[in-house]
Write a structure and sequence with these properties.
This protein is mainly alpha-helical. The protein has one domain: Nucleotidyltransferases  domain 2 (Four Helix Bundle (Hemerythrin (Met), subunit A)). Helix content is about 75%, strand content about 0%. The chain contains six helices and no strands. Helix 2 runs parallel beside helix 6. The mean pLDDT is about 85.
Length: about 120
């Protein structure tokens, strides 16, 4: 069984790996997948934070805003909106109906604006 400190380190390490993958995907012009993996990086950081302030048993959710709320993070309205918007990348890259429309949005500048690569 991992300690709380080890779990936090584990989630941060996974987030760092996702962040590196996000940058590589962006460089290879895989903009849609870059956004998806960027969502995963943020999700894992929020889960590390949840463990730090709450409990070792993180919620099995992918909604960034809900994770932040569960962690009692104080957020501005803009931050709440951003987390809800970025959560859509998790859905829009997984399901074909959404994927076609989302793919059209994913130009080189779109991920830069959203995830600051």
């Amino acid at each position: 069984m991992m300690t709380k400190k080890e779990l936090i380190k584990h989630w941060v390490k996974l987030s760092d790996a996702n962040y590196k993958s996000m940058l590589n995907m962006f460089k290879s012009k895989e903009y849609m997948w870059s956004l998806f993996v960027g969502h995963l990086a943020l999700e894992k950081l929020l889960k590390a934070y949840y463990i730090k302030v709450k409990d070792k048993n993180v919620p099995y959710i992918h909604d960034l805003h809900k994770l932040a709320v569960a962690s009692d993070l104080e957020l501005t309205e803009d931050q709440k909106d951003s987390l809800q918007y970025i959560t859509l990348f998790n859905i829009e890259t997984r399901y074909e109906d959404y994927k076609r429309e989302f793919y059209k949005k994913c130009t080189k500048d779109f991920p830069k604006i959203i995830l600051i690569v």
